[in-house]
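A protein record in our archive is deliberately plain, so that people and models can read it alike. The record that follows is passed on verbatim for readers who wish to inspect the format.
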Amino acid sequence: MALDQLSKFWATSVLYDGPIELVGSLRLALTTNTAGAFGLGGSYVPFLALGALGLVIWMALTGEATKRPLVSVAAGLVLGGAIGNLLDRMFRSPGFLRGAVVDFVDLRWWPVFNLADAAITCGCILLLLSGFRGRKA
């Protein structure tokens, strides 16, 4: 979450004048997003953040966090990413809970995203993998 906010601060400061070309189709280009991760599900964002928080609370109360470390890491990534983007929505223009999320990682063949979006995606993939891992074939 802190790294996400620091990277967004950097992006708004440095990328304001235009994109930075890196390698191949990868560039850093400043944009804002009023929808959810990768531009999807904008109206569901507060519910997704609450769901992630509920998952972490459930894990703490049931002891699941110590039983399944992979699930703990995954939930931490999802929650950290959700909080990182929620902070943008709370404190950025145009106002409380209507703010736009800062995005800047541009692959040019995928929607522009940020570190919080990447953390949420990786956390969801880990949660899926941990679900399959726990089942017997």
In short: Helices lie at 2-14, 45-62, 64-67, 69-91, 115-133.
